[in-house]
Specification:
Length: about 190
Amino acid sequence: MTKSIVISGPPAVGKTTVAKGLADEFNLTYLSGGDILKEMANEQGFDVVGDDWWDTDDGMKFLNQRENNSEFDKKVDDKLIQLFNTGGMVITSYTLPWLVSNGIKIWLAGSHDSSSKRMQTRDNMTSKEAYEITKIRYDKNRALYRKLYHFDFGNDTSVFDKIIDTDNLDATQVINIAKETVRKLL
């Protein structure tokens, strides 16, 4: 497959699960935009251990730093654009769908309550903690990308080939819809 796929959506909606499912199905390379950003945070002295690092005090501190210095996000996005354009990738990214004009773009929609429940289960935290963290991450990222790239993350879904509402679906169902979408768009 020569096209690349980008999966986007709010925090804790299932982007990684879907992207890995598509990578396995179509023999593509999986890459997380968040992992590249974590590498840059590590270079800045942050201890980025664990998949739930974004939800820690250090993760939130780095998010606050990014609000005042867009160089981190621009470097990550430049690298993601380059990798996406080589083809054969499945990338999770908040910004990439608005920055590339080719490939397949899928938005995973989901209510804040649904994302909070997913995070609560995944990261073993209270429902209140999960709700607050997903809300802060969504709101801060939305403001950051509006300032940086002038698009309305979460509201402007016009760039997507497919929008999948994940609220009443399990992971397998969402992956199957994404697989069928990719097959149709190849």
